[in-house]
Write a structure and sequence with these properties.
By secondary structure, the protein is α/β, with parallel strands linked by helices. The chain has 10 helices and 8 strands. Helix 3 packs parallel to helix 4.
Length: about 280
């Protein structure tokens, strides 16, 4: 096995986690919304119900995805060559490492998720450049200590140098505000000055009734979710230097030239920002 694939090794006696396909799962619902095929009837039923209530859901998910692309490209252009991605979700190309390695071929990335179906697809779809390295860690995002103590992080990232920390479209599933703020602070604490934080999460400010209905549908189907205002997102970036334009709906964060105004605010449910640790 080449070094680039070493992260796919599993311990002796490893038992793959069981995938429960009888109930919808947020990562698989998101995969369906994005046009993916790694989902099951309960996921599709939930997604279709949400799309019926808010047809803009699919566009919003795509805008969130392209926000991640622009943010990661920006970080790589600032010299960030190692990334920790929390709540990876089902791989959808271009993935974070493809964007980063498109700028810095030697970039290193650790993906973290606890969904068995993400684990099942990670080995087949997450392929690094020869110069770079990627690892996948099957772990609960709510346990930063376990993430930082893992061999996947220890053998892939050098925590004495700046890291790009991305937490994209997952904090809405940490419904207690204080727990969510503490979680982000615990991920930032071990990272040195010069590291960056990228966050996107759900807001209903742009379309209260329809997006609020989607958030309620997630909760009703056993995936408790929480929307936040801009003021409630601010504490995630406390003590950090926000990159212009600050906290905005994701399609408004440094859009590609010529694309401004093509998407209505009411079709976007994600708010986000990029910030530097001083």
């Amino acid at each position: 096995m080449s070094d680039g694939m070493a992260w796919t090794r599993r311990p002796a006696g490893y038992q793959p986690p069981e995938i429960d396909t009888s109930v919808p799962h947020s990562a698989r619902v998101y995969d369906y919304i994005l046009g993916g095929k790694d989902n099951y009837p309960p996921d599709r039923e939930a997604a279709e119900k949400m799309l019926a209530g808010w047809p803009g859901f699919r566009l919003s998910a795509r805008e969130n995805r392209t926000f991640m692309h622009r943010a990661v490209r920006y970080l790589a252009e600032q010299g960030i060559d190692q990334f920790l991605d929390i709540g990876t979700g089902i791989p959808t190309s271009p993935n974070l490492h493809e964007v980063a390695q498109g700028v810095v071929p030697a970039a290193r990335v650790v993906y973290v998720d606890n969904d068995p179906i993400v684990l099942a697809h990670a080995g087949a779809r997450l392929n690094s450049t020869p110069e770079g390295r990627i690892a996948y860690l099957h772990a609960d995002m709510r346990d930063p200590d376990a993430v930082f103590e893992s061999p996947e992080v220890g053998e892939t990232l050098d925590l004495s140098r700046p890291v790009g920390l991305s937490i994209i479209a997952v904090l809405q599933f940490v419904t207690d505000d204080q727990q969510a703020y503490d979680l982000v602070r615990r991920y930032l604490a071990p990272l040195p000055a010069g590291s960056f934080l990228v966050i996107s999460t759900v807001t209903i400010a742009s379309n209260t009734e329809q997006i609020g209905g989607v958030v309620a549908e997630y909760t009703r189907r056993g995936m408790p979710a929480r929307h936040r205002t801009r003021e409630q997102v601010e504490p995630f970036f406390e003590g950090l230097e926000q990159v212009d334009p600050g906290i905005v709906l994701v399609h408004r964060w440094r859009p590609e030239p010529g694309s401004e105004g093509r998407v209505k605010d009411s079709d976007v449910a994600m708010i986000g920002a990029v910030a530097r640790k001083p």
